[in-house]
Amino acid sequence: MTQNILEKLAATNPEAEIWWDSSPLIYPSWKEETLAKAPEGKRAEWETQLTRLMDHETIETTGEMGFRGVTTNPPLSLQAIKLAPERWANHIRDIARANPGMDVEGVYWTLYLELVKKGAEAILPVYEKSGGKYGMLSGQVDPRFVRDGDKMLAQGLSIYEQAPNVMVKLPGSKEGYEVLEELTARGISTNNTTSFTVPQYMRCMSAVSAGLLRARAAGVDLSKWRSVITHMSARLGELSDWKVEAKTRGIELTLPEIRDGEEAILKRAYHFGKSENHPSKMLQCSMRVEKDERTGKLVSRHIEDYAGSDMVYTCPPSYIAGLMNAEDELADFDPKAIDREPNKASIEKLLKLPSFRAAYEFDGMRPDQFAHFGSFKATETEFAAATRQTVDFVAMVMDK
User: Fold this and answer.
1) Are 359 and 373 spatial neighbours (Cβ–Cβ below 8 Å)?
2) Distances in Å between the alpha carbon of 1 and those of 46, 112, 158, 216?
3) Looking at the domain assignment, is residue 246 inside a domain?
4) Given CB 3.0 to 4.6 Å as the disulfide criterion, which of 95, 305, 343, 383 pairs with 143?
């Protein structure tokens, strides 16, 4: 049996997890599309690997899946709708007919909850067979409300009600962490998203710890509770102000040095969590396959630098396809990579940049500053735009 490259990564630590970063509903069509583009002689091998990662018939009959969980976000939900627009248009019409007088926003939110529910139900047997350890799906609160704690709490509770295997995905804003503590206190699993910096990760761990303390005091069942803290790696380096600040200061900043900075921040948070025996798992996302300017070879440092850790790696369809196409050129995983120190020269250079210091130092930002960090603002804008597109699709269908 030839392992998929992600299975090889997971083999470097028995507690490492590979997740699917999209709706389970689109996996069959993406699989066929990917197999149609497989290199000559690799189609059969790829088909076996992709079937092992996720196959709905196998899930139904055995409760087994190579992926350990699923994450979704507004752009990915929009992608699922675009793949079958008429199917979802019919759902929108049904929702509107069943709820006369409901406005466009109400119909949109009902539709979104249905997307979460159907995705979670598709992998529910995995959750049940594993006793709640695996098979969770993250549903995200509306990114237009990242500073509205009341709305996020109400939405988080409604997302949670869709299926027993749903995690609530909350933003790394001051208000997001306050809601995260409240949901944790109720025994609800959470995923901290739009998070990029060590101060955010420290605040998330604090919120989780406070919530767990409240939950235990109230006798809340935590047997199936989980928490992950997302590090949006490439979005950190590419959407922050590092490059602009470097140029202003006459500093030449290369892509490998940016990747060194992303590595330093995630490893600082990861090792801190381990030293505290914190129950949240770090989750790596926003990953790239690219040519290393130093060696000229194809690399995916966003997984290679952390091999041997027990992290979660959530992988979108395009990234998985990129890894599979580049597998013969990528280096083997070093199971001790997680303990390698980041490049000291790169960190010394990056520490000259205010926005890197804000992301790297434990006290680099106050909670009220999180939502103003460059990467947060850019991602919030993108996710809010995808949400508006989905709302507009609903409005278009309702107008017909």
Assistant:
1) yes
2) 11, 39, 42, 45
3) no
4) 383
Q: What is the pLDDT of residue 352?
A: 98
In this prediction the pTM is 0.96
Q: Which two tokens stand for residue 322?
A: 């990129």
Beta carbons within 8 Å of 272's beta carbon, 6+ residues apart: 198, 201, 202
Distance of CA 187 to the CA centre of its chain: 21
Tell me whether residue 244 is in a domain. Answer: no
Mapped to the 3 state alphabet, what secondary structure does the chain carry?
A: CCCCHHHHHHCCCCCCEEEEECCHHHHHHHHHHHHHCCCCCCHHHHHHHHHHHCCHHHHHHHCCCCCCEEECCHHHHHHHHHHCHHHHHHHHHHHHHHCCCCCHHHHHHHHHHHHHHHHHHHCHHHHHHCCCCCCEEEEECCHHHCCCHHHHHHHHHHHHCCCCCEEEEEECCHHHHHHHHHHHHCCCCEEEECCCCHHHHHHHHHHHHHHHHHHHHCCCCCCCCCEEEEEEHHHHHHHCCHHHHHHHCCCCCCHHHHHHHHHHHHHHHHHHHHHCCCCCEEEEECCCCEECCCCCCEECHHHHCCCCCCCEEEECHHHHHHHHHHCCCCCCCCCCHHHCCCCHHHHHHHCCCHHHHHHHCCCCCCHHHHHHCHHHHHHHHHHHHHHHHHHHHHHHHHHC
Between CA 109 and CA 98 the distance in angstroms is 14
| Vertex 336 angle, CA 334 and 342, to 5° | 95
Report how many domains make up the chain: 1
Please report whether residue 234 resides in a domain. yes
Task: Tell me which residue range forms the domain holding 192.
Answer: 5-239+265-342+371-399
Residue 374 is predicted with a pLDDT of 97
**Domain assignment present for 203:** yes
Q: From 19, 64, 36, select the one nearest 315 (Cα to Cα).
A: 19
Please tell me the predicted confidence (pLDDT) of residue 180: 98
**pLDDT per position as a tens digit, 189-205:** 999 999 999 999 999 99
332-389: per-residue pLDDT in tens?
999 999 999 999 999 999 999 999 999 999 999 999 999 999 999 999 999 999 999 9
CATH of the domain at 120: 3.20.20.70
